[in-house]
Backbone:
C-alpha cells in the first residue's frame, strides 16, 4: 500500500464509507454475531445491532467508490480519510461480537484504500465498550492494515469519554501515535429529539461538545498529553462557547470541580477542527479560534448535511487564514495524520 497522496488539492478528513463486502458478510453471517441486515418494502437495507436499528437505511453513496472518486475529482479533493458510518459503531452489542464486526469493517475498508493508493487513507473502527479489545484492534489496524486514524463515538453507548475504564485504549492510542476522530453516534434519540431533524442539527454538535469537555475537564488530556483529536462539525459548539468552559473551571463549586488540574485553555491545542460548517462568518471565527495549524477540511461525504462545494468552504476559511488557506489546511491534515505525504 502506498501512503503517497497527491501533492496538491484538498485533503478531506471527514468522510464515511461502508463496503459492499461488509454488508454481504453480515447477510452471510445471518445474525450469529448480533448484527443483521433487513430490507424494507422500498428495497432499502437497514442494519440492526442486537435488535436496535440504525437511524437510517444504508445510503448508496456510502458504498459507491466510483461515484465518490468522480465527486472528488470534480471538486478538487485529492485524498479522503475513509471512516465507517457511526450508526454501525456497535457499542451496544457483546464485546466478542463487536470484535468480529469491527475487524470486518476494518479489513473491508482497507481493501479499498489498497485498491486506490494515494486517494484514500483509512480510519479504524474499534469495540470501545471493551477497552482492552479496542486497544488490540487498534494495534492490528495500525500495524497490520496501515490505518492512519481511529474513529470513535462522542460517548460509548452512554458512557462518557472521561470514564477511567477507557484508559487502556487511550494508552494504546498514545503509544501508537494515532490520530483520533470523534464523531457522534446517531442512535438512541427519542421521537421528541428527532422532530425537525434536531438530532442532527442540534444533537450531533451537542454530543461533540460534551465529548471535548469530558476529555479536557475529566483529566484525559492531562494523563495522555500526546493524544490528538479531530472534532467534527466544526467542533460542535465548543469554539463558540469556549469561554464558558474556561470560566466554569475557575468557579465550579467543590462538588462539581473538574478533575483536570489546568483550565481548558491548557489542553485545547490537542484538538483539530474540521470545516463542516455552512456559514462563512462561523468558519472564519473557527479559524481564528483554533489557529492556522488546527483547521482541516471535512465534507461529511456522502450525507446531505455535508459540504457539497469544498472549494467554496475553503475560500470562506481564507477570510481568516488568507489565500494560502488550502495549503495550510492540507499541512494541518498531514500533521494530524502523521503521514509521509
Residues:
Amino acid at each position: 500500500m502506498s501512503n503517497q497522496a497527491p501533492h496538491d488539492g484538498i485533503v478531506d478528513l471527514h468522510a464515511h464509507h461502508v463496503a459492499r463486502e461488509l454488508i454481504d458478510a453480515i447477510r452471510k453471517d445471518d445474525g450469529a454475531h448480533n448484527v443483521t441486515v433487513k430490507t424494507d418494502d422500498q428495497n432499502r437495507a437497514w442494519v440492526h445491532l442486537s435488535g436496535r436499528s440504525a437511524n437510517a437505511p444504508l445510503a448508496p453513496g456510502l458504498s459507491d467508490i466510483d461515484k465518490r472518486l468522480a465527486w472528488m475529482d470534480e471538486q478538487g479533493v485529492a485524498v479522503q480519510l475513509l471512516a465507517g458510518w457511526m450508526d454501525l459503531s456497535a457499542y451496544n452489542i457483546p464485546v466478542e461480537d463487536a470484535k468480529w464486526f469491527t475487524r470486518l469493517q476494518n479489513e473491508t475498508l482497507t481493501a479499498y484504500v489498497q485498491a486506490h493508493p494515494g486517494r484514500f487513507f483509512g480510519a479504524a473502527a474499534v469495540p470501545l465498550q471493551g477497552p482492552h479489545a479496542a486497544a488490540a484492534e487498534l494495534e492490528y489496524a495500525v500495524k497490520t492494515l496501515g490505518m492512519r486514524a481511529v474513529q470513535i463515538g462522542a460517548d460509548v453507548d452512554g458512557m462518557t469519554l472521561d470514564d477511567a475504564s477507557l484508559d487502556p485504549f487511550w494508552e494504546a492510542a498514545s503509544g501508537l501515535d494515532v490520530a483520533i476522530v470523534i464523531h457522534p453516534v446517531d442512535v438512541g434519540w427519542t421521537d421528541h429529539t428527532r422532530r425537525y431533524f434536531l438530532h442532527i442539527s442540534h444533537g450531533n454538535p451537542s454530543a461533540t461538545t460534551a465529548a471535548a469537555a469530558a476529555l479536557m475537564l475529566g483529566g484525559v488530556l492531562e494523563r495522555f498529553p500526546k493524544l490528538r483529536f479531530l472534532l467534527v462539525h466544526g467542533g460542535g459548539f465548543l469554539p463558540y462557547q469556549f469561554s464558558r468552559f474556561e470560566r466554569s473551571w475557575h468557579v465550579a463549586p467543590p462538588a462539581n470541580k473538574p478533575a483536570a488540574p489546568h483550565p481548558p485553555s491548557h489542553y485545547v491545542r490537542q484538538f483539530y477542527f474540521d470545516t463542516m460548517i455552512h456559514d462563512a462568518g462561523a468558519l472564519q471565527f473557527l479559524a481564528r479560534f483554533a489557529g492556522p495549524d488546527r483547521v482541516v477540511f471535512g465534507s461529511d461525504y456522502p450525507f446531505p448535511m455535508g459540504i457539497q462545494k469544498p472549494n467554496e468552504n475553503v475560500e470562506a476559511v481564507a477570510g481568516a487564514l488568507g489565500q494560502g488557506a488550502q495549503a495550510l489546511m492540507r499541512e494541518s491534515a498531514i500533521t494530524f495524520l502523521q503521514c509521509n505525504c
